[in-house]
């Protein structure tokens, strides 16, 4: 099939073939007596790209996406010149030329249909800092343009409007020249826009001086080479010459942009041949048109600058490989960060709940309550805390308790115990829960309690350094039930008479002393190694009369202050070796 003319409405139209072919469905295009075949085309409402000389819309033709460029025409005559131009352009076929597909000849829907290049114009790509373009890509773009223009010139067709915004990039990163030919087809559109500000900018920057001065009556190959020199500058600097100029510069038709300052080296961001590239620019914009090279000569020069040239697809694959490796490194780094964050989260979670319980809750399992036949519970509180709080600010109280309980927490880490909770000045610890440990729970709690009381002798209350910190402690052993209570801020709680009795041991204890029940004393006697003094019979609320004991020290620790301050009410429990 030969030349294509498109009858394109606002949302749908007909592709009409001029020339040979069978006639089908002509009812929508009766005014075109020479049309012989009609095919549907759909024009999308979305805008793909915009340029000063027209709006590029996307359309669907023959099942593929096409670019639809609207032309500003008040009337259209299908002349012999336009027919000849369309025929010439239709015969052009080169991988670096944007393929002409057809056009609409119905006013006001006059437009040109070309293949769609999804990456946009080269100017868009160069100005997008998110796209990593090394010099391999840049020289590839420059070479692609030179090849496309060389093909045009070989067919005696000159562009006359070459700039970075009508050099477009397809999905394989191949640069293609568009907006070539069809001068009569576009004529009125050019004349209408040429009076505007933007077209003047393009003419002054990209058009050769001899064209602007009128010394050349038509577009020449040398004029295209001059336009190409400006593109080379944009490729090197990744800039837009149109948007960077001042009003004063625009008035000078002999203006040249400064040569790019290129850095030579072996890195991807370095120009492989700085001197030759700048020399090529100077030759292309030479005022002496006889000194300007042809595009075929330009192509050969670029090939010498880039001897290891690879295709854009291969370069993209290399970039993707580098990106993949970089991404793998980032993923590994982020994975390590995630693992560290998980460890911190686990550490925080395990400090709030026992590890087996926390793991069950995290995996969505219900943490069932458990019965423990024997465990030891410790309670302590601060003697005179109410008076201390009354003479302190809330901040001072919080700071004091935080320092004290942080010290306690560091101590209990040395023992097989679990901190249940702190409520105000009360401190509760258990051993034998959630991990049973025979009868060792009594010894673990006893040793821990001695350390906690001992540290109080040297602890300084931050805002009352002269006040002696005094705690009283109580210990009891027996069966308990443990489980998680609640779903909001779940707590691991202990239940049973053992907990209540341990609390009574604490409330009836004395400053800087540790009171233990008979059950705990029996276990410590079995374990050996602890000095206990019988306190005697004590009336305990809810329990009646109980015999309790003072935990004085470990057997060999007679230097402990408890030995010097205790008032013994009985004989030490004998402990055999």
Automatic annotation (TrEMBL):
Membrane topology classification: Single-pass type I membrane protein
GO molecular function: adenylate cyclase activity; ATP binding; guanylate cyclase activity; peptide receptor activity; protein kinase activity
Location of the Guanylate cyclase domain: 376-506
Class of enzymatic activity (EC top level): lyase
Compartments, as annotated in UniProt: Photoreceptor outer segment membrane
Domain of life: Eukaryota
EC number: 4.6.1.2
UniProt domain Protein kinase: residue ranges: 12-311
Catalytic reactions of this protein: GTP = 3',5'-cyclic GMP + diphosphate
Gene3D superfamilies the record matches: Nucleotide cyclase (3.30.70.1230), Transferase(Phosphotransferase) domain 1 (1.10.510.10)
GO cellular component: plasma membrane
GO biological process per UniProt: intracellular signal transduction; receptor guanylyl cyclase signaling pathway
Any single Pfam family the record assigns to this protein: PK_Tyr_Ser-Thr
Entry keyword set: cGMP biosynthesis, Glycoprotein, Lyase, Membrane, Nucleotide-binding, Receptor, Signal, Transmembrane, Transmembrane helix
InterPro entries recorded: A/G_cyclase, A/G_cyclase_CS, Cyclic_nucleotide_synthase, HNOB_dom_associated, Kinase-like_dom_sf, Nucleotide_cyclase, Prot_kinase_dom, Ser-Thr/Tyr_kinase_cat_dom
Keyword match Membrane: yes
Protein name stated in the entry: Guanylate cyclase
Organism: Pleuronectes platessa
